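Continuing the batch. This is chain 6 of the set; chains 1 through 5 are on the previous pages. Same settings as before, nothing changed between runs. Recording input and output for traceability.
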Amino acid sequence: MQIDGSCTFAAPPETVFAALVDPELIASTLPGVHDFHVESPNHWRGNVRLPVGPKVAFTFELVERIDPSRARLLAKGKTFGGSVQVDTAFDLEPTGSGGTLMHYSAHVTLSGLLGRLGDGALKPIGEHQVAGVMRALERRLGSPGR
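Output for chain 6:
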């Protein structure tokens, strides 16, 4: 499943970038996250309760970081009988008004029992989750967004 989009923030790219690579801030914006632990600035782990499935133990790795314009995060999760991998990336560019335009993408791969859920049923849920993360990020940055 592929989810792509863009969002505008009133904050400058440096501020948006810092928020997007802050493990604690990101964990607080993701729905269903608990037992979250930062192992290093680039490695995190935690449990996520999926909207249509079981609790999944995830590891998160910041695999690419180009301050303050691009980052890529790889999340891998396992649960009994299935696994999920989420490869997300964002690119930031300044706007003429001092804000930031963010383009993002997320590629979600499900296998095992989770893979049987199918993209058609999951894409609207994934898009809803992304929208929730963007709203939470907008609130954190004090930005009107969109």
